Amino acid sequence: MVRTLLLIAALLAPGTALAEAKANQLFGAMKTASRHQPAAIGSYAKGCAAGLVQLPETGPTWQAMRLSRNRNWGHPEMIRFLQDLSAEATRNGWRGLYIGDISQPRGGPMTSGHASHQIGLDADIWMLPATRLNLSRAEREKISSIPVRSADQRSVTSHWSAAHQAIMRAAALDDRVDRIFVAAAVKIEMCKTATSTDTRWLQKIRPIYGHDTHFHVRLKCPAGSAGCETQSPTVAQLSKGGNGCDDTLMWWVTEYLNPPKADPKKKKDPQPRPRGPRDYTMADLPAQCATVLSSQ
Ligand SMILES: [Zn+2]
């Protein structure tokens, strides 16, 4: 720990290699939260977080999975939300929820996996219904979630259930939630089977690639996080009463899954790989992130 602090102190000294140090290495090395008031800083895919709290590894209605990753840290509002949603899961026949990655102890870019999950406001929730809440650490490393989408990506599998839909609906109706990412086939199924006359909650369910073994809940910027950047709102559709069960959704199935074949005669210009979160240095992140990193 002392060595880590010395390393960071050296990196933060003016005129040093800080500008070149990879932010994901620095944040990935943090084992505990910063000692600050809780705050989400920056944007979901370019930021960090102060004063995060750890989701208890096991609670009355949840277990955190893959503990070795040390990514069960979130903004207190996210931790409360997950506890609430896991209680809701028990009202739909599940024992609770298995919770995947939230954020690193101080958020920030990661050395593997997600582009987002950087400010303590994103969480992955397993599609595998929790049946027992006494999984050992070793079991939580070993067992896998289940795919609720078919291999051809076009429909849901027999693992999909009314309980999944009810739990995601409850999440979408929660005012703290900004959006929920899930495989397109799942949203299509939800659009088909939603029975309520008010389907506006479906607007928060956003189709995306992957996300067939978990769904990803993103919260809005909480009060007290002045440096948190809200995403461009999805209100444009909402104001028209839209629920996203439309052509945009079908685009995922018709276009995204069936991209036009590239013309082999066309000469390809070598495209440089776009810079992503794994390339970020501290200079790319909000200035407050250096303070978050240097906290004891
Ligand atoms: Zn995620």
Would you mind describing this structure in some detail?
With 296 residues, this protein is α+β, with helices and mostly antiparallel strands. It has a single domain (19-257, 282-294), classed as Muramoyl-pentapeptide Carboxypeptidase, domain 2 (2-Layer Sandwich). The protein contains nine helices and eleven strands. Strands 8-11-9-10 form a four-stranded mixed β-sheet. A three-stranded mixed β-sheet has the order 4-5-7, covered by helices on one side. A hairpin with a 2-residue loop joins strand 1 and strand 2 (46-50). Helix 6 (184-193) packs antiparallel against helix 8. The longest helix is centred in the first third of the chain and has 15 residues, at 76-90. It is globular and about 55 Å long. The N and C termini lie close together (9 Å). The relative contact order is 0.19. The mean pLDDT is 88. Bound molecules: zinc ion (ZN). Zinc ion binds at residues 114, 117, 122, 124, 216.
Summary, kept brief:
Helix content is 28%, strand content 15%. With 296 residues, it is α+β, with helices and mostly antiparallel strands. The protein has a single domain, classed as Muramoyl-pentapeptide Carboxypeptidase, domain 2 (2-Layer Sandwich).
Number of helices: 9
Instruction: Kindly provide the radius of gyration, computed on alpha-carbon positions and rounded to a whole number of angstroms.
Output: 20 Å
What fraction, in percent, of the residue positions are helical? 25-40%
| Distance between the ends | 9 Å
Number of E strands: 11
Hetero groups in this structure are: zinc ion
- How many structural domains are formed by the residues? 1
| CATH A-level architecture | 2-Layer Sandwich
Please report the first level of CATH classification, the CATH class.
Alpha Beta
Strand order of the largest sheet: 8-11-9-10
- Structure classification: alpha+beta
Beta-strand fraction estimate: 5-15%
